[in-house]
Specification:
- Strands 7, 8, 9, 10, 11, 12, 13, 14 and 15 form a 9-stranded mixed beta sheet that branches. A 4-stranded antiparallel beta sheet has the order 3-2-5-6. Strands 1-4 form a two-stranded antiparallel sheet.
- The protein has helices at about 15-20, 25-35, 60, 130-140, 160-165, 205-210, 240-250; strands spanning about 10-15, 40, 45, 50-55, 65, 70, 75-80, 115, 120-130, 145-155, 185-190, 190-195, 215-225, 225, 235-240.
- The longest helix has 9 residues, at about 25-35.
- It is of the alpha+beta class and about 260 residues long.
- It has 3 domains: about 10-70, Structural Genomics Hypothetical 15.5 Kd Protein In mrcA-pckA Intergenic Region, Chain A, CATH 3.10.290.10; about 75-140 and about 225-250, Alpha-Beta Plaits (2-Layer Sandwich); about 145-225, Alpha-L RNA-binding motif (Alpha-Beta Plaits).
- It has 7 helices and 15 strands.
- The protein is elongated, with a radius of gyration of 22 Å.
- The model is unreliable at about 1-5 and about 255 (pLDDT under 50).
- Bound molecules: uracil.
- Uracil (URA) binds next to helix 6.
Length: about 260
């Protein structure tokens, strides 16, 4: 035996359960796909839906359904460029953020959910995951992951906003605890960036309302050190890799991961 001990075996799952959980159909439908030879592993048809499949990271490279690569197994993290006008909810009326994902991905169990929310009229970078532990790591106050927003304002800045936001004393209406300090970078009289580590309800809009201004457009362009890539058009998403997860927690000032 090596000093590191035996390598741990990957978890296994019945084929019908694996594919039903990924939204490919009911277990009965999956059994039908298998019998028809439409599911292949390493090129071989898998005809028994009760066969156990090892959940190895390379499974999407090895399994096909109707000659298409298998969807990513549970444990996904997505980076999505939220356009204005879509709601971060599973059930409200109007266009929903989940409508930007492939239909099959919306039937997954565990479900893919947003990590926090952006208002309907806010655009920018949002993360989605089916990994509850990762979601909690990202939103945990202990992690203090900074989020940067580009703000357009109705009225010119007065000049004292940066000091007020940085003071850690600003109280939002209806709350009994002041905001943690927020960093502000002024671009011009009506444009600025703010970086916050909390995520209170409508926080940026309410911060500017508290000092007598009004946010006319809001866009989140950074979470931790993860920038909204110019290549990700509004409405588009991509799978995150390990380096993206590292970037979320890597920003200066971010606490322990
Ligand atoms: N602050 C807001 O006011 N809205 C958002 O969507 C995010 C932060």
């Amino acid at each position: 035996m090596s000093a590191a001990g035996p390598a741990s075996k990957p978890a296994t799952l019945r084929l019908d359960k694996l594919l039903a959980n990924l939204g490919y159909g009911s277990r009965r439908e999956i059994a039908g796909l298998a019998r028809a030879g439409r599911i292949r592993l390493d090129g071989e048809a898998l005809r028994d839906a009760d066969r156990r499949i090892a959940l190895t990271p390379d499974l999407p490279d090895r399994m096909t359904i109707d000659a298409e690569r298998l969807d990513p197994p549970p444990g996904v993290l997505l980076l999505l460029h939220k356009p204005e006008g879509v709601t971060c909810s599973h059930k409200e009326a109007g266009p929903l953020i989940y409508g930007l994902l492939p239909a099959r991905w919306r039937r997954r169990d565990p479900a893919i959910s947003t990590v926090g929310r952006l208002d309907k009229e806010t655009s920018g970078l949002i993360l989605l995951t089916d990994d509850g532990a990762l979601l909690h790591r990202i939103i945990s106050p202990k992690a203090s992951v900074p989020k940067r927003y580009q703000v357009s304002l109705d009225r010119p800045l007065r000049g004292d906003e940066g000091a007020i936001f940085a003071s850690g004393t600003l109280m939002l209406e209806g709350e009994d605890r002041p905001l943690l300090p927020v960093a502000m970078q002024v671009h011009d009289a009506t444009h600025a960036a703010v970086t916050l580590t909390e995520g209170r309800y409508h926080q940026v809009r309410r911060m500017f309302a508290a000092i007598g201004n009004h946010v006319t457009a809001l866009h989140r362009d950074r979470i931790g050190a993860l920038d909204l890539s110019a290549a990700l058009a509004p409405g588009a998403f991509r799978l995150a890799g390990e380096e993206d997860v590292a970037a979320i927690f890597a920003a200066p000032g971010a606490g322990p991961a």
